[in-house]
Give the backbone structure.
Amino acid sequence: MKFRKSLVMLLIFVLGLQTAGLSAQAAGQNIVIHLDGQRLESDVAPYILPKVNVTMVPLRVISEGLGASVFWSQATKTVTINKSGTIIQMTKGKQQATVDNATVNLDASVEVKQGRVMVPLRFVSENLGIRVNWTQATQTIDLFTLTNDSGSETTPDPTPVTPVDPGNSDQSGNVPATDEMRGAWISTVNGDWPSSGAKGNIEKQKLDYTQQLDQLKGMGINAVFVQVRANGDAIYPSDLVPWNSVLTGTQGKDPGYDPLEFMIEEAHKRGLEFHAWFNPFRATNSASTTGLAANHVSKLHPEWIVNAGGKLYINPGIPEARQHIIDTIMEVVNRYNIDGVHLDDYFYPSNVTFNDDAAFRTYNTLNTSDRAEWRRDNINQFVKQLGESIHQVNPNLEYGISPFGVWRNKAVDATGSDTKAGVTAYDSMNADVRTWIKQEWIDYVAPQVYWSMTLSAARYDKVVDWWVNEVANTNVKLYIGHSPYKIGTTESGWQTSQEIIDQLAYNERYNAIGGDIYFSSQYLTKDPLGLIARLKSYYGL
C-alpha cells in the first residue's frame, strides 16, 4: 500500500498540475492528495517537460503504485505496461504509442534520466482508467481509481488482448535501471557456475546462481550472458545434444531439473535480461572422446570433427554441420523465454593447423583457390542463416556476436586498427565481422577489448575508436567487452581496478557505445582490488 500510495501521489500530483495548468513551481507547494478518499504521502518527485507541459514519473511508480506489470526492453527501447487487460507500449524517441494495439499520438514519450526509465504520467494514468480532480482553492488533488463518485465516468472494458511476453518482465516492477547494457558473462566451464562442490546437488546449484545474480545486480549489472552450450552439450534438456557434465559429473546424465528454465526465471524476477550464450563450433576442450555421451556430435558425426591444437572442432566447411549448430540454437529460441542469442569467437581456431582439405574439395562452391576466403564465406553463411532463423521466430530477439577485439592490424590492411595484435578476427579466426556489421546480419557486436589504456600493441582507446567507426551508419549496436579477470595481473595497466572505470569513462564520449559486458561474473563478484565499490560509485548506486 505504501508503494501504491507513492505512485498515486506522484500520479495525482502531476495530473493535478497539468489539469490546473500550473507551472513547475507548484511542485514545491503543500498539495494534499487523496486516493479514493485516503490521503497519500510521497517523497518521490516527478519532473515536468516545460515545452509540452507533460509530467514524467519513474516507471517503477506505475508498477508499485497502480499494481501494473511493467517491462523495459533494452533491445528495442520499449516499455510495456499491462494492467487489467490494458496494454500500453511506448518506445523511446517515438511520438506514438499503442494502447491495446491502437496507435495513439504522444506529446512526450519514454525517457531515461539519471538511470531511471521515465514515462508520461497523464497518458499512462488516463489509459489505465485513473480520473483526477484538482481543487485550486484547497490545493487538493483527488484521484479516483473506482467509479465511486457521482461525477466519475465509467471506464469501458478494454478489448481483450493477449500480451506478448516481453522476456525479462518483472512482476514486482523492478525493471532495469538504465537503457544501457551492463552485462556479465556467466561461464559454465571456467568456474563461474556451478561451483565445483555443486555437482549433482540441485539446491546448491540453484543457490550458487541466485546469490550470484543478487551480487551482480547489486553492483549495477542488468543482463547476464549464460553459457548454455560450451562443448557440443547443453545445460537444458535437448533432443540434439547431451547434458553438460558440469551439472552431474557425467556428460549426458539428467541433473533432475531444467537449469535453463530456472536461470531465466530467476534473472527475470530480478529485472535482469537473460541472453543465451553459445560456443558455436567448439566440440571438446581436449582431443579425447573418453567420457563423452553416445549422442555427442563427435561420436554421431566423426566426419564433421577436426582435431586442431588438441581440441575437437565441428568443421564449419560442412553445410550439414553448420545446420546442426543452428538447429541446436533454435531449440532454445523456440522453447525458452530468452532475451537474446549470443555467440562468442569460437569459429575457426587461431594459430593452429586446421585440416579441412576434404571439405574444401567437396564444398568449395566459390571455386576459389583461397582457402581463407572460403572459410570466411562458411562463417558468413552461418552468421546470416542463424540470424534469419532467429528473427523469423522472434523479430525482437537480440542476436549478437562477441568477436576477438582486433579485426585486422593496420599494417596488413589500411582500414584496420592501429594495433599490432598477434591474433586477429579476420585473419586468424576467419571471422569477417565487417561484413556482418555492414550487411546488418547481427543486432549488436560486442568486441572483446581486453587490453588496457597503456598496452602499446593494442591500446584500449585505439581499438574502441576503430569499432565505433565500424558501426557508424548502420543499425548494429556496439557493446564493449571488458576484462576484469586481468585486474591484479602483471599485464600493463591492470595493477588497479581503476582501469575498468577509466575505460567506462572513455566510452562516454561515444553515443554509438550502448553499454558494456564483463568477462566474467566470478571476476566481478570476487571484487578484485576493490572493483565493486568503484563500479557502484560509477553507476551511482
